[in-house]
């Protein structure tokens, strides 16, 4: 029997973790003008995005918007 793993589209499908008690918000953050290597290109924006998503009780400090 062969096992095939098919990823879900972004934002769809169940989320699983090792501990079901782990809070998960499902939020995603988009940082404009960032390439595919955000931690090295813009460490401050990367750190702020990770902290905002990893700490749900904390209000978002940074709002990243694409300039018009």
List the helices and strands and how they pair.
Blueprint: H1 38-41, H2 43-54
3D structure, described in words:
With 68 residues, this protein is mostly helical. Helices cover 24% and strands 0% of the residues. The protein contains 2 helices and no strands. The longest helix has 12 residues, at 43-54. The radius of gyration is 15 Å and the shape is extended. The N and C termini lie far apart (52 Å). The model has no long low-confidence stretch (mean pLDDT 68).
Largest sheet: none
Estimate what percentage of residues fall within beta strands: under 5%
Q: How many strand segments?
A: 0
Radius of gyration: 15 Å
Instruction: State the helicity in percent bands.
Output: 10-25%
Poorly predicted regions: none
Order of helices and strands: HH
Inertia-based shape: extended
Distance N to C terminus: 52 Å
Count the DSSP helices.
2
